Amino acid sequence: MQPDRIAAILNLPISQELLARDLLRMAYVAQDGTPRNIPIAFTWNGSQIVVCTAKNAPKLPALRRHPQVALTIDTEVHPPKILLIRGRAELDVVDGIPQEYLQMNGSYEMTPEQRVEWEAEVRSLYDGMVRIVITPTWAKLIDFDTTLPTAVEELIRQRAERA
Fold first, then answer.
1. Per-residue pLDDT for 112 more than 90?
2. Average of per-residue pLDDT values in the chain
């Protein structure tokens, strides 16, 4: 998929709403060759998705071996809005707590006191983290108004041909 087409999809208002959410699901190939799909907090920097994790997370060796990932960000209402993204994960080991980690956890409901306690706990637990930076190589928005899943589009086309 061409970068300008990816950018056009990701810049749509519904895509921007989804990219402002707290969690996505990231699918990847685990070390044993089986699929994994995990919920994880994220932030969108305008061109890449950034997730952060512990330096000893089991997903890291798997992502080093197979850096291709598939992401889903969606809503829990009917009809759902779904943003599908595929990309390549790059791992960036950093000292301390990445600013993105603090940002991506900033929308959870916490009192100011809880936020101070949470941040102190995070800083005492991690001496560093890994930023997983995902550059989109493919994107599709499904809003069930202007776009549908490919299989449903095909069924509609087939139905029209039968009529």
1. no
2. 93
